[in-house]
């Protein structure tokens, strides 16, 4: 059975960038629903429910056709949001405020410099039509790429390792920002836990 991850911060700790009400609803309602529906889909296949969520999605071709859509949507939703909470941090007490080390070098290889990287990522996030995510992924050759995916489709299903993600579903920002997705994206850069992103990068390139 899958369950919500414990958070390393309180719901109001990301203020004023992300508001507590959105954080609370996003975690205890939206993410919980993905978890519940994933568990419900896997009641007849305990061998699948025993896999770590990332493994379940990497091995998506082993999921029976009759529950494939549910696993893609709700398993993806669970994996994506588990990463989401982990790469956020309060601006004052979180991890590093900027990438460093080998991750910083890889970002520079991809985009030339960090400012351009932020611009490219933000442009892709702004351009997602409808509900979806923008990701920084590590490819099999260990280079980075910025990609988008619709709905809750996980890059893990495509052999990519996500290390940073931005949820641009309206439920992630509508209460505070209404239709102003660009302002939400701008706020996002203030609450990223780069220590966690670097940890994920290091693990992905080993
Ligand atoms: Mn979400």
Summarize the structure in words.
This protein is mostly helical and about 210 residues long. It folds into two domains: about 20-85, Helix Hairpins (Orthogonal Bundle), CATH 1.10.287; about 90-205, minor pseudopilin epsh fold. Helices cover about 50% and strands about 10% of the residues. The structure holds manganese (II) ion (MN). Manganese (II) ion binds near residues 167, 171 and 172.
CATH architecture of the largest domain: 3-Layer(bab) Sandwich
Order of adjacent strands in the largest pleated sheet: 2-1-3
**Extended strand count:** 3
What is the fold-level CATH name, i.e. the topology of the largest domain?
minor pseudopilin epsh fold
Mean of residue pLDDT?
Answer: 96
The helix content, as a percent range, equals 40-55%
Question: What is the radius of gyration?
Answer: 17 Å
How does the helix and strand content classify structurally?
Answer: mainly alpha
What is the name of the CATH superfamily of the largest domain?
Answer: Iron/manganese superoxide dismutase, C-terminal domain
Compute the number of structural domains: 2
The total count of helices amounts to 9
Q: What can be said about the biggest beta sheet? A: 3 strands, antiparallel
Q: Runs with pLDDT <50, length 5+?
A: none
Instruction: Enumerate the distinct ligands.
Output: manganese (II) ion
CATH class of the largest domain: Alpha Beta
Shape: globular
What structural keywords apply?
binds manganese (II) ion, globular, minor pseudopilin epsh fold, Helix Hairpins, mainly alpha, 206 residues, 3-stranded antiparallel beta sheet
